[in-house]
Amino acid sequence: MLKSPITCRSISILALFKFKKTSENGRVARAKVLTIDTMNPTVKNAKYAVRGPIVARAAELERELNEGMKKPFDEVIKANIGDAHAMGQQPITFFRQALAICSYPELLNDSTFPEDAKSRAYRILQSCGGNSMGSYSASQGIDSVRQDVARYIERRDGGVPSDPDNIFLTTGACDGIMTMLKLLVCGEGPTRTGIMIPIPHYPMYSATLVELAAVQVNYYLNEEKCWSVDISELKRALDEARHYCNPRALCIVNPGNPTSQVETRQCIEDVIRFAAKERLFLMADEVYQDNVYGHGCRFHSFKTVLFEMGPEYSNTMELVSFHSTSKGYMGECGFRGGYMEVINMDDEVKAELTKLLSVRLCSPVPGQALVDLVFNPPQPGEPSYDNFIKERTAILSALEEKAKLTEQVLNTVPGISCNPVQGAMFCFPRITIPEKAMIEEQGQQPDVFYCMKMLEEAGICVIPGSGFGQKEGTYHFRMTILPPIDKLQILLNKVKEFHQKFTQKYS
Amino acid sequence: MLKSPITCRSISILALFKFKKTSENGRVARAKVLTIDTMNPTVKNAKYAVRGPIVARAAELERELNEGMKKPFDEVIKANIGDAHAMGQQPITFFRQALAICSYPELLNDSTFPEDAKSRAYRILQSCGGNSMGSYSASQGIDSVRQDVARYIERRDGGVPSDPDNIFLTTGACDGIMTMLKLLVCGEGPTRTGIMIPIPHYPMYSATLVELAAVQVNYYLNEEKCWSVDISELKRALDEARHYCNPRALCIVNPGNPTSQVETRQCIEDVIRFAAKERLFLMADEVYQDNVYGHGCRFHSFKTVLFEMGPEYSNTMELVSFHSTSKGYMGECGFRGGYMEVINMDDEVKAELTKLLSVRLCSPVPGQALVDLVFNPPQPGEPSYDNFIKERTAILSALEEKAKLTEQVLNTVPGISCNPVQGAMFCFPRITIPEKAMIEEQGQQPDVFYCMKMLEEAGICVIPGSGFGQKEGTYHFRMTILPPIDKLQILLNKVKEFHQKFTQKYS
């Protein structure tokens, strides 16, 4: 990336110079219409560390290694993102067989494909215009897919009814979350919409809020209690925020990212009571609902708890829950499949939501097909059932093992302390950074300095805690637990070694 | 959709009533947090007729027909949207074979699949993390796909160089257009960014501008000159707009939607000169570049013309061009594949663009794979070449025939006049609506009234011109030319018959 050596952008004489500088052929060159000074400031102000400068440097290092440059490591391990297949996880055979048939329906006649993959693909194709995944779907998503999702939710929630009309298929969960946030934002100055988000948090939330010029209202997760949500902290955050904005929604990520906590049923009930009392719209990011490993932990959907609390809550509380095909055991990030279920949403708002989605026409149909397969997988007695269960179990058991290994190894390192990885795909250990390192880092955040060193010295790419937010004076990093177990072991040992050296050097 | 019978939303006592109304169990029900009155007003104000009330009514009529209700027609013909596969167009075999292999790489071992489909799929998979379409790609898109797109552009533009670093893969073209518009918008009041768009226009533009609170600056296409762009009209629109906003970008859609014109090389050169002189960022929506049928018409990319105009232009003019896999001969709308090429974009802005895309992680990988296949299709000598050419030619020839048939039939109807369908997939005929009909329509726009009647009486779903914008006092509708030729013939005869009856009734 070329950068102008002149960084002081506010001096207007420089702008004038920029405008008048001559091009090669001696004519006066036109100044650019769109520059960093004249672009949308909300876009410029948004931050997104998960794909920020450390990740860019990691890609550079990979290129340098490929070109034969000597480094203190043989390979860059990208532990910065929850990208299961990139880490070597194999796709679930059934899903890919059915998707291949949907892509090339001639395969319906191929005797090597199992009948259940064929029947699922056939049903999906029947629901597509012209029986082709190449047609646009309805903006809300294919009808039969939304029906299958609703039935899945009913099974998951022990029979609590789910209406396909409340299901909206999305381009990954992010798209749904961004769309909902966009609907919620209004007002100016002290009446501007505030959105409560956890700290630490997945930075798509803060980046979107900056883009929407909404007010980010931080509530801190309790690191001492395994990153759980604390109602008194919610109350503190809300009361303070009411002085400068209009807080209208509360986002909960369960299981947590980057913090991997799994909230208890009691906690969820308390959050619902709080949101009801304080008139907050509830946004439950539940994309890691299949990723639960912690001892005694269980996933409780916000919707089930809401319905168990009786009609006072279930008839009135506005809730939207997000899910995705990118996480869980399938890890199909590239297909950008997802859905959201809206509960008690005002009918006129629902119509506006549909309109908003319709401007983008529809979410990708292969992603919608995958949503259908994931939420309507092989059933007992069907030909793919045994293999499906085998593959799914292997992936989830390995994840559980990796979660435990990560916690265990990191906690053997003096200066690193790691909460149990109860769920999701990440650990978020707290690190002690020596005073001297803080002096040396020269304007970088200390944890950015730490992670950049880890990348340069050990070839490990993790994301500094400051990219997710953390309590002042505390430092963390986020690392995925996704590499295969032998590689994860190497990775953890390298982290250990790096941390020890780093501490020694700056002590 | 349930609607409250009370429509006067501004009376606060009603809001109070709403808040205090009791629920079934006698308790005080909570008012909703998110209502039509408290949602994001920019979302509410956006309009998108292509999927609006007429299309909703068409879906309803289809359901009613299926339930056995009697109608004056046997089927609803949805001629409202450019959705080729939904109209029965078959996918290109080669693309779907390669996509099936990408989905289920076991098919690399299947001897019934042609070698070129295998080699393309293999190359795509090699560029995916973990060799799986289930991985996230880089936010800008898969490297090798961007390389193939750049090479395609070079071939198309007679050797004008294209840099893969300037290619950004997008979720359909809309996503690219929305992203670019988002980058461009800044300022407040009279310095707010204005964006020049054609009238009539594809309403994604206006809906996005409303969402972004940007100022829509209309320039009218010249219906008398086959909907071409007129420089004096651009100048008029710009000069007027400068009194109330800061016009920064000019959007050109070539071939046009809904107006189907193909701009001449001279016109494009004039537009570039105009944009250069007036310091406007150029946005060229060229998604219909393969859809050119008009006698003597040829597609000229803005980029080629820019480079032919010499370094004074090619070294400085900021241009972005959009393309898609949804149109052309492939019509793969559901995959949401697309790209944009940015020319002379400021490097810092390019970095911000990448960051903005990265918050959404990446565009769908199956769509990216399709982009690769479309822009790197079978070559002479490869096993799929002959069949590919045969399929492509058949589709494009049929479209040409349909374009001519449409123009010809519609122009036989007194009160309908239709410009030649030079390109794209639509006709946009002008219709005469009798005075009496205008009295009867009771608050609806006359062309909405006309199209709704056409739907109810003839079962034909088209979009009223007011959804695209039109000169005051003129009325049009947009109809796709995509149905198979025999069905199109029926459709056109029904339109003819309907128009005659309608004119008779209201004369």
UniProtKB/TrEMBL annotation, chains A, B:
Which Gene Ontology MF annotations are present?
L-alanine:2-oxoglutarate aminotransferase activity; pyridoxal phosphate binding
The question of whether Ubl conjugation is a record keyword is answered with no
Q: Name one GO cellular component term.
A: cytoplasm
**Could you list the residue ranges forming a coiled coil in this record?**
none
> What does the record give as the reaction this protein catalyses?
L-alanine + 2-oxoglutarate = pyruvate + L-glutamate
The membrane-spanning stretches of this chain are none
Family to which the UniProt record says this protein belongs: Belongs to the class-I pyridoxal-phosphate-dependent aminotransferase family. Alanine aminotransferase subfamily.
**Protein known as:** alanine transaminase
What species is given as this protein's source?
Answer: Mastacembelus armatus (zig-zag eel)
Q: What is the lineage of its organism?
A: Eukaryota, Metazoa, Chordata, Craniata, Vertebrata
